[in-house]
Design brief:
globular; binds zinc ion; five-stranded parallel beta sheet; Rossmann fold; alpha/beta; 8 helices; single chain; two-stranded antiparallel ribbon
Amino acid sequence: MSSSALVLFSGGQDSTTCLAWALSRYERVETIGFDYGQRHLIELSLRPQLLASLRAQNPLWQERLGDDHMLDLSLLGAISDSALTSDTAIAMQANGLPNTFVPGRNLLFMMVTAALAYRRGITVLVGGMCETDFSGYPDCRDDSMRALEAAINLGMASSMSIATPLMWLNKAQTWTLAEELGGKELVELIRTDTHTCYLGERGVLHDWGHGCGSCPACALRARGYQDYAALK
Ligand code: ZN
C-alpha cells in the first residue's frame, strides 16, 4: 500500500474533501496549488487558513500533513480565453462546453503534479475530478484520467496512480463523504471556509456556504447541500 500522496488543493469544496480523504489514508500528504491567472484569487487566498484548520481538527492529520507547494502556471491564462481567466460572461459555447472551460487545464495540473511527485518520492496523485455532476469538462472524465495515468507512467518510467475519490459521487454524496471523514466539524469548515463561486463573490453565508448564489458553481453547490441536508 502506498504511504504518500500529493493532493491538488485549490481551496474549494471538492479539493478540501479530497485532502481529508487523503489524510485519512496516507501517512504523508503534501498539497499543490496553481496560480494560473484566475480572475478571482479568493480560492487561493483561503488555502493557508484551510490547511491550518484541518491540522487543528485532527491530531493524525496534523502529523500527516506536510509541505504545501504553490506553483505559477500563468501560461494557462496567457493561452486561453476562458470566463475563468478573462472578464467574460459565463455562457454555453457552440461546441456544447461552457466558456468556463480552460482547455487542458486538468491535464496540465495533473502532469505538473506528477512531475513534482516524482521528485518528492510520492506515488499517489489525488484530484477532485468528478464525472457525476458533469460540468461538461472532458478533462474531468475518468477515461481522461486513466489515459493520463498511463501516459505519465510510460513517460516517466514510474508507477504512480491517480486517485479521484469524487469521480462517481454527486454533490450530496461529497458532503456525506466529508461528514464520514471529519464529522460535523469538517462539514462546517467546508461550508464556511471553502470557495466555489465562479464570480469570486463571498457575500453572505448561505446554508450551503458563501457565493453569488446564481452562477453554475453556486447552483450546483447549493443543490448538493440541500440534497445532503434532506437526508438528515
Ligand atoms: Zn457564484
